[in-house]
Specification:
The complex is a heterodimer of chains A (157) and B (443). Chain A is of the alpha+beta class and 157 residues long. Chain A has a single domain (3-147), classed as Sufe protein. Chain: A, CATH 3.90.1010.10. Chain A has helices spanning 3-6, 9-16, 64-77, 82-96, 102-112, 125-147, and strands spanning 29-35, 40-49, 52-61. Chain A is globular and about 50 Å long. With 443 residues, chain B is of the alpha/beta class. Chain B has two domains: 21-52 and 324-433, Aspartate Aminotransferase, domain 1 (Alpha-Beta Complex); 56-321, 3-Layer(aba) Sandwich (Aspartate Aminotransferase, domain 2). In chain B, the strands form five sheets. Chain B has a seven-stranded mixed beta sheet with strand order 4-10-9-8-7-5-6. In chain B, helix 7 links the parallel strand 7 and strand 8 (223-227). In chain B, helix 2 packs antiparallel against helix 10 (307-323), helix 3 packs parallel to helix 10 (307-323) and helix 4 packs parallel to helix 5. The longest helix of chain B has 20 residues, at 77-96. Chain B is globular. The two termini of chain B are 14 Å apart. Classes of the chains: A alpha+beta (157), B alpha/beta (443).
Chain lengths: 157, 443
């Protein structure tokens, strides 16, 4: 059965018990990303402390891959400088483009931690966008947060 | 209320199928391939696009190998033959839907056909030729659609309204997946210029009561466009019986090639519409100062057409005619009855759309508690079962029923009970895989 190669236990664990889920204050930017081919969506907020990501909070609906991906991303990026977090995002994109090449997953294992479990997704072109949605939202929100003049609390961006 | 689910015995409700599934499968080369490490291909996605029988592939190949030329131009023998084959296909398709030959316009697909009408209606407002202004849409006019429409029969009308200042109105849906016609007489009124409605929902499977809608629309002088993308491939459709002004459908959903669709229009209506796309083939006289246009159908067929695809669609229609559309419909109805019963017997499965076969086609959308449709689709794919997941280009419908997306199975002439059984087993496998097998209710 090929299914296990995509649905690693780590992924199903993140899906069932997502880390960091829920929208929180304060934040400097909030973005809403949708996947127009399937209707998956995520609302994601970024709170910066200087140039460090102090918090990422999110709500969304979608398949196990998209929901587990945002949870694993939360673990990877909170507490890290924006530039480092986005570089990790680039590594995740590289993993998604690896077409299941084990050498790529091996090279990125230390950097991507739990997120390396998504290597199996790269063999299913239709699902790559599910795994990438949250990372695209983070990139977008971080750019806006860096450009934002003020922190928002208790309201909508 | 106590609900008990009685499990049907294996083989329950399997009516004899009108079509010889094994013989038909032998006509479809793709059905002999395997997927995902040797699994038999169980293709339940004909609603997205159908597979093609060998006769359609042969017709296209024969055209290119032996007759290829641009139709309706050229003085050579190949041009004559290409024109003959192109027009013979038009005649066959016209016969298939009970239309006059000159009422059949070839388009790229359903989407293209709908846009051709939508742009003609806004072009009418600025047409220099007074005879083209009859159906002009403008401020104060209303266009009516339904909440059940595919994006292809919704977005072009939204855009028409934005271009012209007209107002878009719509008929809603009932909880059981049918059109809510209680306010038909107010939504369709003397301001209505056109009603665009699907004959069979691509997501719910619902077959709509078009008689009532056509009667009301015509009573107030409005045109009616019927989206036949999911009906023409699956049931007998006769434009005279339909009574509408336009019928649109796609070749690739009815065993034909991609890149060809049909806009049927009542001749007097087509003749009063200005063109959408302009250029070669559709003109009468061209001068630097301006041009005049051919009568329908050529007025709406600018450029060298998709000739081989039209010929292929002609072969597809011939294949369907040999099976008999009554048989195709009865075949799918038997499969649908069985599939609805089997799926609804699985605890945690909810069918989105009519729960039985009354006024219903073979598109079955469903959700599985605790598993996102994409994940259901992935497990099915692992079993060799190809289905569609997502919002099926009908986002307002999934929103209406409060689900993020659905899994959809659709049937066609090569579908057998074994395919439905594979679907049902795949859904149960998904429940096991994701650990969400609910307690089975006992009768």
């Amino acid at each position: 059965m090929q299914l296990q190669s995509m649905y690693q236990d780590i992924i199903l664990d993140h899906y069932r018990n997502p880390h960091g889920r829920g929208l929180r204050d304060p934040f400097e930017a909030e973005v809403h990303h949708v996947n127009p081919t399937c209707g998956d969506e995520v609302t994601l907020r970024v709170h910066l402390d200087g140039e460090t990501i102090a918090d990422v909070s999110y709500e969304g609906m979608g398949c196990s891959i998209s929901q587990a991906s945002v949870s694993a991303m939360y673990d990877l990026v909170v507490g890290r400088p924006v530039t480092e977090a986005l570089a990790t995002g680039e590594s995740f994109v590289a993993l998604m483009q690896s077409k299941g090449d084990p050498a790529v997953a091996e090279r990125l294992e230390d950097e991507l931690e739990d997120a390396v479990a998504f290597a199996g997704v790269s063999k299913y072109p239709a699902r790559i966008k599910c795994a990438l949605m949250s990372w695209m939202a983070l990139k977008d929100a971080s750019a806006r947060a860096l450009a934002a003049p003020t922190t928002v609390t208790g309201g909508q961006a | 209320m106590t609900q008990t689910v009685s499990r049907p015995a294996a083989g329950a409700r399997k009516q004899p199928l009108p079509l010889d599934v094994e013989a038909i499968r032998a006509d479809f080369p793709i059905l002999s391939r395997t997927v995902r490490d040797g699994k038999r291909l169980v293709y339940l996605d004909s609603g997205a696009t159908s597979q093609k029988p060998r006769s359609v592939l042969d017709a296209e190949r024969d055209f290119y190998e032996n007759h290829n030329a641009a139709p309706h131009r050229g003085a050579h023998q190949l041009a004559e033959e290409a024109t003959g084959l192109y027009e013979a296909a038009r005649a066959r398709i016209a016969e298939f839907i009970g239309a006059a030959v000159e009422e059949v316009v070839f388009t790229r697909n359903t989407t293209d056909a709908i846009n051709t009408v939508a742009y003609a209606l806004s072009n009418a407002a600025t047409a220099k030729e007074p005879s083209f202004r009859r159906y002009a849409v403008g401020q104060g006019d209303e266009i009516v659609v339904t909440q059940m429409e595919h994006h292809a029969n919704l977005v072009p009308w939204q855009q028409l309204c934005e271009r012209t200042g007209a107002t878009l109105r719509w008929l809603g849906l009932t909880d059981d997946g049918r059109l809510d016609l209680t306010d038909l007489d107010t939504v369709v009124n003397e301001r209505t210029k056109l009603v665009a409605v699907t004959q069979q929902s691509n997501i719910l499977g619902t077959i709509n009561p078009l008689e009532a809608i056509v009667a009301r629309a015509h009573a107030v002088g409005a045109l009616v466009l019927v989206d036949g993308a999911q009906s023409v491939p699956h049931q007998p459709v006769d434009v005279a019986a339909l009574g509408a002004d336009f019928l649109v459908f796609s070749g690739h959903k009815m065993l034909g090639p991609t890149g060809v669709g049909v806009l049927w229009g009542r001749y007097e209506v087509l003749d009063a519409l200005p063109p959408f796309l302009t250029g070669g083939s559709m003109i009468e006289v061209v001068r630097m100062e301006g041009s005049t246009f051919m009568p329908p159908p050529q007025r709406f067929e600018a450029g060298v057409p998709m000739t081989a695809q039209v010929v292929g669609l002609g072969a597809a229609v011939e294949y369907l005619q040999a099976l008999g559309m009554e048989n195709v419909q009865a075949h799918e109805e038997a499969l649908t009855a069985y599939a609805l019963e089997q799926l609804q017997a699985i605890p945690g499965v909810t069918v989105i759309g009519p729960p039985d076969t009354v006024a219903r086609g073979g598109a079955i959308s469903f959700t599985v508690d605790g598993i996102h449709p994409h994940d259901v689709g992935q497990v099915l794919d692992d079993h060799g079962v190809a289905v569609r997941v997502g919002h099926h280009c009908a986002w307002p419908v999934v929103r209406r029923y409060g689900v993020p997306a659905t899994t959809r199975a659709t049937f066609y002439v090569h579908t057998g009970y074994d395919d439905v059984d594979a679907l049902v087993e795949g859904v149960r496998a998904a429940q096991r895989f994701f650990g969400v097998t609910p307690e089975e209710a006992t009768a």
